[in-house]
Amino acid sequence: MGAEPDTVSDTAHDTVAETVRVEGTRILATLIRTVGDVQIAEDAVQEATLAALGAWPVTGVPPQPRAWLTVTARRKAIDIIRRERARPGKEQDGLRMIELARSDLPPDDVVHDDLLRLIFTCCHPALSPPTRVALALRTLCGLSPAQIAAQLLTTEAATTKRLTRARQKIAAARIPYRVPAQEELPDRLPAVCGVIHSMYTAGHAPIDGGAAFDVDACAEAVRLAELLHDLLPEQPMPTAVLALLLLTEARRSARLDEHGEVVTLDRQDRRRWDAAASTRGIALLNDSLRRSYGQADAYQLQAAVAAEHARAASYEETDWTEILRLYDLLVSIAPSPAAGLGRVVAAAEAADSATGLAMLAELPQSPRWHAVRAELLAREGRYAEAARELAESLGGPATQPERQHRERRREAFLQASAPTASDQRKS
Amino acid sequence: MPQYLALTYTADVNWWEPEQASELAVYRQFAVDNADSIQASALLHPTSTATVVRVEGARGGNVVTTDGPYAETKEALTGYYLIEAEDLEEAVAISAQIPAAWGGAVEVRPVIVAK
Known about the structure:
The complex is a heterodimer.
Chain A lengths: L6 H29 L2 H22 L5 H22 L7 H7 L7 H15 L6 H12 L4 H7 L4 H17 L12 H20 L10 H17 L4 H17 L22 H17 L6 H14 L8 H14 L3 H14 L2 H8 L6 H13 L3 H12 L5 H27 L1
Helix pairs in contact in A: 1-2, 1-3, 1-5, 2-3, 6-8, 6-9, 7-8, 9-10, 9-11, 10-11, 11-12, 11-13, 12-13, 13-14, 14-15, 15-16, 15-17, 16-17, 17-18, 18-19
Chain B lengths: L2 E8 L10 H13 L4 E6 L7 E5 L7 E5 L8 E9 L3 H8 L4 H4 L1 E6 L5
Antiparallel strand pairs in B: 1-5, 1-6, 2-5, 3-4
């Protein structure tokens, strides 16, 4: 990007970049199988992408961008393999060169399976969870190591190193490029869904940083959830993940007001929620539940909580008893700090703040834990304690808007506690 | 066919102790069940029999030996299997049958193939 960006060509560039990125994933998926090497395939697609980004803004996007990119990427792969072959000890079979020299496009069902191969390889259980996320962002979303580093709150150098090690392990340990058999899917899908969910969480609720959420990161996760659901429409878990993401996305724009300040759920303008996304999310959730024969998983339960909020016309009309029941189930099958805090809030609403406070005492402390405790104490009129909890909470990491929100609440609680303090002095 | 070294990490046992007999029988059964894949294997004497060798400075320097294992850890290297497998998933499926996998851990490492 130059110092004075030309908006017209920037828009053209964005369109080209988006086409290239979406098509790139498809092409990469097939090329990895043909070439048998993630690194060579990625380099070839990368070179084809750069060629497109160089040519298309000038020539215009060709009538069949997919064909153009596919053939270009294959040619680049041939070049790379020839260069490799020039190095000693790299004899390549002629078969894949013949395959690469073809000019026709792979049929859709082949690409379908190749995309699944790519997804299951990136999310292989033999790779660590953070590596799976980084690899998915790189190969499935086409993000650069710098973009991945920004999303995962790490450095570009660390991301590059992680990706290089992952590709080396896939090649050296021979992680197979294969779609798991139908009966293996229940074992393998949780890792894939976990990657999509943590990608979304990193975008929707970052631990740190200047923004309350990262729109691009959320969009990438939703895109991947759509793709996985599209590829495996009969599997309940990917359907539930997509439902959860859509239901959560539906409320995202209402989480900040026009000044960029945090608006908590009780004060959100529900007209700003995306009703179409909610409706689709609820339909997907129902479909997922039907297919899993009443055995709810963690994504279905979280989606069901989100669906309850979507159904309620106002905060006051929320069915907190049902939400508490869902959180009880969630905590029993997939305990996590976030689920525990969600359960506390639901219990405080369904019963009273004292019940919430008692449950909170059982949970591990964290910046969010202190923030939740502060709100519950304030409801009991214990403002001085509430302000102290928020001070505790501000000692840990939080996004800038969330930090400002907590500062404002702390100010309000301090003011509310002032008369109490003077009363105490009098007595 | 690709080869993998499956290293077993378990409690630092003496395989010849009578109480290891039943455990040892399970290892033998694993070896029989997977005879086609296992290229080589060994069970090791306990780490108390180990000697660590270091040469001071560079090659030809003083040979310094230390009694006992290289590192004191809860789980020790107690044996290995060199296995042949089509890919990592097959190697993992075989390794999951080694008793060490539930009594400790099995580290599966791909072997570099000579060019």
